[in-house]
Structure formats: structure tokens, C-alpha cells
Amino acid sequence: MIEFALAFPAIVMMMGTLFQFGYAFMTYNTLQGAIRGGARYASIADYDAPDGTNFVADIKNVVVYGLPNPDAAPPIVPGLTTSHVIVDASNQDGVGIPITVSVSISGFELFKVFSAITLTNKPKSTFTYMGQYESP
Question: What is the per-residue pLDDT across 22-68, written as a single tens digit (0 to 9) for each?
Fold first, then answer.
């Protein structure tokens, strides 16, 4: 009983630490999949001229909710909002159509055991743009 009483707090701390690291890795992996899905969607979505406002909004929704037009859908990762998603379609040809589209997460806090890691442009995915141009 005495040995158990002495070892129990250490075992509980180790198990809690393992759980937190596992949860952090699972969350990061989920974010990675969401970013890749959003970048894949961005590579084939119609680009609305001249600034791509609807294009960017749809991509952010795909990353956060899994759908371009969510109707009260919960976010894929708790705490993730569209403000955390960065869409970069600035690498454009002479007409204004993107050549590549990059999607990343910035400003999202990933909690681990005793602190939080703020993600800055991680995870990130870049795809060549293959969609169509919608003229105004």
C-alpha cells in the first residue's frame, strides 16, 4: 500500500503527459489534413475577379468546417476559426489568375502539457492552381 501510494502520483502524471502529447499530435494531424483538403479545394475552385474575396472565404470555410458553405457546422478542431487560416494566392500571372495557392494556419494555439504552442504558418500546403477564372 505504501509503495502504491508513493508511486501513484508519478504514474498519474506520466499518463496525463502521454495523453496530452497524444492529443496535441492528433490535433496537429487533423489540422494538417484540413489544410491539405483546403489547398486541394483551392487548386480547382473558381477564382472570382478581381480580388478573390469569395474564393478566399470558401477556402477558409473548407479548412475550418470541411465545407465551402457551412450552415452552423462545428469546426473540425475546437477553437479553430477562419481568422486562423491564411490563404496566399498572390503568385499570379499577367491576367490576375493565381499560379499557385498556399494555405496555412497562423495564430492557433495548440495546447500541450504545461504550455501552448502557437502555430505560425504551420501546417502549410501549396498546390498549383488548375481552376477557372470568373470574370465580374
Answer: 888 899 999 999 999 999 988 888 877 666 778 888 999 999 998 88
* Cβ neighbours, 10 Å, residue 12: 10
User: Exposed, middle or buried by CB within 10 Å (0-12, 13-18, 19+), for 76?
Assistant: middle
**Which CA distances in Å does 11 have to 5, 6, 17, 113, 115?**
10, 10, 10, 15, 20
**Higher model confidence: residue 98 or residue 77?**
77
- Yes or no: say if 102 and 13 are a contact pair by the CB < 8 Å rule: no
DSSP category for residue 66: S
Say how far apart CA 117 and CA 80 lie, in whole Å. Answer: 14
Residue 30: partners with Cβ closer than 8 Å, 6 or more residues away: 76, 77
**The one-letter amino acid at 78:** P
Give the pLDDT of residue 65: 92
The count of residues in the chain is 136
Q: How many Å is the maximal CA-CA distance in the chain?
A: 77
3-state secondary structure of 61: helix
Reported as a single tens digit per residue, the pLDDT across 79-117 is 889 999 999 887 777 777 788 889 999 989 887 667 778
